Amino acid sequence: MRNKSALLRLLTIVVAIGLLSLSGLRLAIGVDFERLQQALVSRFGADRAPLLLDWQRMLGDGRKASETEKLRRVNDFINQRITFDDDMSVWGKSDYWATPLELFGQGSGDCEDFAIAKYYSLLDLGIPINKLRLVYVKAAQTGPAGTFLQAHMVLAYYATPTAVPLILDNLNPQILPASRRSDLSPIFSFNSAGLWQGTGNNASTSSLSRWQDLLARARAEGFQ
C-alpha cells in the first residue's frame, strides 16, 4: 500500500490490540459461491472465474485442517495468486478497499485487499472472529534513500486472548509471531464486530465508514 493522505492522518492514533468482550464470539459467514461467480462474471468477465473457483476449492480442501494449517493455506493462496498493485492503478482512486470478489475479479490489489481477503477466507473456514484482527501498522521498508516507514495493513491471528498474535502479511510471506516482526509498529486494529479499541482515541470516521461500506458491499455480493 502506498502512503495515502487518509492514512497519514491516522499515524498519530495509538490503539492497543485487545479482545475485551469479544472473547468467545464467533462470526460464521456463509458464502454463496454461485452468487459470487455470477457477480464476478457479470462485472469482470468469464476469464476471471477460474481464480474464484480455485479459491473455493482451497477453502473446501481446508475445512477439516487445523487452524494453523488453515492460516498457511489462506496466506499462501492470496500471496501467490494475487498481484500487488496500488489503488490508483487498479481502481483509479487514491484509496479503495476491495471486497474479496473485487480482488479476485481484478487479480490485483494492495495490502488492505490482501488482508481483507485473508480475513474473509479464514472466517469462512470457521476461525472465530475474536481470533482475527485487521491491523494498521507502520512498516519499516528499505529503499535507495535508506529506511522509511510506510502505512500498511496485516491480518493478526490470536490462538488465545492473551497469546502473541501470528501475522499474515504480503510483505513477508512467512507467518511469524508479532514479537518477531520488529519491522511492524501497530497503529490500530478492528474486525467485523465494528469494535475500535485503544487508549481512549477512536480511529477516524472516514476509516470506520470505509470498513462499514465494504461490509455492506460484501454482503450484497454473497458474503452472508
How would you sum up this structure, described in words?
This protein has 8 helices and 7 strands. The N terminus is likely disordered. The protein has 224 residues and is an alpha+beta fold. The protein has a single domain, classed as C8orf32 fold. Helix 4 packs antiparallel against helix 7.
Please render the helix and strand layout as text.
Layout: H1 5-8, H2 33-44, H3 49-61, H4 67-81, E1 83-84, H5 87-91, H6 100-106, E2 108-109, H7 111-124, E3 132-143, E4 146-157, E5 166-168, E6 176-177, E7 184-190, H8 205-221
Parallel strand pairs: 1-2
Antiparallel strand pairs: 3-4, 3-7, 4-5, 5-6
Helix pairs in contact: 2-3, 2-6, 3-4, 4-7
**Mean pLDDT over all positions:** 84
What is the oligomeric state here? single chain
Q: CA-to-CA gap between the ends? A: 28 Å
Structural class: alpha+beta
Estimate the global geometry from the Cα principal axes.
Answer: globular
> Sheet bearing the most strands, described?
5 strands, antiparallel
Which CATH class?
Alpha Beta
The CATH level-2 architecture is identified as Roll
Q: In which range does the helix fraction lie?
A: 25-40%
The strand order across the widest sheet is 6-5-4-3-7
Order of helices and strands: HHHHEHHEHEEEEEH
Quantity of strands, as a count: 7
Count of domain modules: 1
Helical segment tally?
8
How large a portion of the residues is in β-strands, by DSSP E? Answer: 15-25%
- CATH topology call: C8orf32 fold
Low-confidence stretches: 3-28, 198-202
